[in-house]
Amino acid sequence: MTTLNLLLLAGQAALASVVLPALARLLVGLCPRSAARRRLVWTTMFAMLLILPLAAAIAPSLAVITLAAAPIDATAALPAAPPPDAAPQGLSTFAQALGVIVITWAFGAILVSARGLGGLLSLRSLRRGSVPAAAERLPVAVPRGCSVRLSADCAGPMTWGVIRPVILLPDDAFDWPAARLEAALRHELAHVRSRDSLVQAMALLTSALYWPNPLLRWAAGALRSRGLGQ
């Protein structure tokens, strides 16, 4: 029965991974001019899908199947016990199929996570090859804990990091017109204040957990390429 309940929980998670992205896409379409609301919708959707397996692990299933016990006839002869080495064939086949499914899912989750880890290592490499920007030359104030750096390998402004965010600019950023540099910094600081890196991390974890679902891969890709599905 434990295995059956686990399968039911997996089915609930799979259903939610289809319904929630579709609902989020519908809600995003209702607020095309509000980036903040679109961001809230996608963030809530990813958070719910991440919390779902944890909640399912510590709470009883919503669809627990209970079987009524048959009345015991004390006069009935007890069935003969099967030999110790005789295993039910159906149960053995089911266990093998379940093992294949789990291994396949784990392989896909590891592959998606590895791609995200590769991106993180690339960002760490960019940071190591960068130099701090002179604070007195920055046209806007930068919050404490956030660093602005310059790199010759940076094609355009970018931001990452949750606890200690980093804003990386091309090494010629200080040669830009003052208005352009200020606009670029304010744009990146907006990402820092809204914790977009945390949302991206949630999207990556959700994509790894539900990797067979193309809707979630699309949603995560929208966050990366167009900025929170804009």
Rounded mean pLDDT is 79
Strand content: 5-15%
Low-confidence stretches: 61-69
Q: How many strands, what sense, and barrel or not for the largest sheet?
A: 4 strands, mixed
Shape: elongated
Q: If helices are DSSP runs of H or I spanning 4 or more residues, what is the number of helices?
A: 6
Strands side by side in the biggest sheet: 1-2-4-3
Distance between the termini: 45 Å
Rg of Cα set: 26 Å
List the secondary-structure elements in sequence, H or E. HHHEEEEHHH
Number of strands: 4
Number of domains: 2
Class inferred from helices and paired strands: alpha+beta
Question: Which percent bin holds the helix content?
Answer: 55-70%
Molecular structure report:
- The protein has six helices and four strands.
- The protein folds into two domains: 2-66 and 100-125 and 197-226, no CATH class; 131-193, no CATH class.
- It has helices spanning 2-30, 35-58, 89-128, 178-193, 196-209, 214-226; strands at residues 131-132, 147-151, 158-160, 166-170.
- With 230 residues, the protein is α+β, with helices and mostly antiparallel strands.
- Helix 5 (196-209) runs antiparallel to helix 6 (214-226).
- It is 59% helix and 7% strand.
- It is elongated and about 75 Å long.
- The protein has a four-stranded mixed sheet with strand order 1-2-4-3, with helices on both faces.
